[in-house]
Structure formats: C-alpha cells, structure tokens
Amino acid sequence: MVCAGPVKLAGGVVLGVALWLRHDGHTSSLLELKFDGQQAPTTFLNSVHILIAVGAVMMVVGFLGCYGAIQESQCLLGTFFACLVILFACEVAAGIFGFMHKDSISKELITFYDNVYDNSVATTLTDQDKKQAAAAVLKAFHETLECCGRGISNPFTTLVTQGLTDICPKSVSASTTDCHGKIRELFNEKVYLIGIAALIVAIIMIFEMTFSMVLCCGIRNSPVY
C-alpha cells in the first residue's frame, strides 16, 4: 500500500486545487458573466475541469497501484506504471502548453472587459437596456477586483466624465489600480499556484514510477513466484 499512497495523495492535491480554482469567488464570479449574448472566456474554466478529471484519474490509478502491491501482481503494477507514464507525459505537455499561453487567459478576459467598457461609455449607444447591462457587468468586475476603469489614461477621470462613478467601489480614487492590471494579477497568482502543485505532483510521480518498477522487478525475480 505504501507503493501507491503518494499517488492518491497527489491526486487528492490536484483535485483539491482544481475544485478550489473552480469555486473561487473571484474567478467564478467573473468567468460566469454574460453581456449581449457573449459569455466571458471559458479557457480557464475548461482547464480547471481537465485538472479535476486528472485528479480523479490519479486517485483511481493510486488504488490500482495499492491493489497491485497487495496482490504482488506484475500485471497490475505494470499497468500502474504505464498509467503513471501517460499521466506524467500529459502533465509535461500541459505544463509546456500552459507556459507558452500563460498570458492568453488574462488577455481574453481583458478583451471581454474592454468590449463591455466601450459599450458602457459609448455616447452613440441609444439602447438603454444594453447600456445598463454593460454597467452591471462592469460593476461586477469593479467590486470583485476592487478596481475601476481600464489601463488607458486615467480610468477614474474617464468614468467621472461619463457619469459612471456609481459602478466603481466606494473606496475608489484617482490612484486606484486599473482593472487591466488587476485581471493580470489575479490569473498570474492562479498560474503560479498551479505550477507549484504540478511540480510537487511531478516529483511524486517520478518517485512512484521508479518504486513500482523496482517492486515489479523484485516480484519477477522472487524464487517464490
């Protein structure tokens, strides 16, 4: 049972981190916003759902390794090793892909925010319902991130001239961080935490692959079997 215990632990860590990311108040409240039939970018949520699946699979594979160790079955241990290799390869591929596209999630959400912002302050937009919907989405961004406006000129002054200060937090001031910076900061923190968890899991998986192969070879060379 010692053989696969860390894999179950690693699977639990991945599953726990993924569930936390999925239900974190800041990310979930922003990524579930809609405006004019357009959903906020779902790339981050899709990635989190994949992490949830990986964590669950790792826990199942961990039980397989435990059972194989108890039964001293070369077949089960070999299957356990093969599953770990596949999961490890997927994790490395996902890590490389994530590192190469680590800024795309924040850029997508910033583009969504800017679209809503432009509709909210547009003087040519006559559809009041659409303007109010845009203002409501902006207010959700501002209250969640404690920011106001975007990173162009002075965000607070821009909103003052448009008469939209009611969508900003009451503590807002001219020196308040713009929402572009806050969005980047939010997702950079999440990516950093995911990276730490992935590194820990990778180390555990390397140890488990080595240990399972040693155990499998030991069973094969045992005179009893």
Helix and strand layout, with pairings?
Blueprint: H1 5-23, H2 25-31, E1 34-35, E2 38-39, H3 43-71, H4 74-100, H5 104-121, H6 128-145, H7 155-161, H8 179-221
Antiparallel strand pairs: 1-2
Helix pairs in contact: 1-3, 1-8, 2-6, 3-4, 4-8, 5-6, 5-8
Provide a descriptive summary of the structure in words:
The protein starts with a helix and ends with a helix. The model has no long low-confidence stretch (mean pLDDT 76). With 225 residues, the protein is an all-alpha fold. 75% of the residues lie in helices and 2% in strands. The protein has helices at 5-23, 25-31, 43-71, 74-100, 104-121, 128-145, 155-161, 179-221, and strands at residues 34-35, 38-39.
Considering the chains and any ligands shown, give keywords for the structure.
225 residues, mainly alpha, 2 strands, two-stranded antiparallel sheet
Number of strands: 2
Distance between the termini: 20 Å
| Low-pLDDT segments, ≥5 res | none
Oligomeric grouping of the chains: single chain
Count of helices? 8
* Mean residue pLDDT: 76
Strand order of the largest sheet: 1-2
Strand percentage lies at: under 5%
Helix content: over 70%
Largest sheet: 2 strands, antiparallel
**Inertia-based shape:** elongated
Structural class determined from secondary elements: mainly alpha
Membrane topology: Multi-pass membrane protein
Organism: Oncorhynchus tshawytscha
Family: Belongs to the tetraspanin (TM4SF) family.
Keywords: Adaptive immunity, Cell membrane, Disulfide bond, Immunity, Lipid-binding, Membrane, Transmembrane, Transmembrane helix
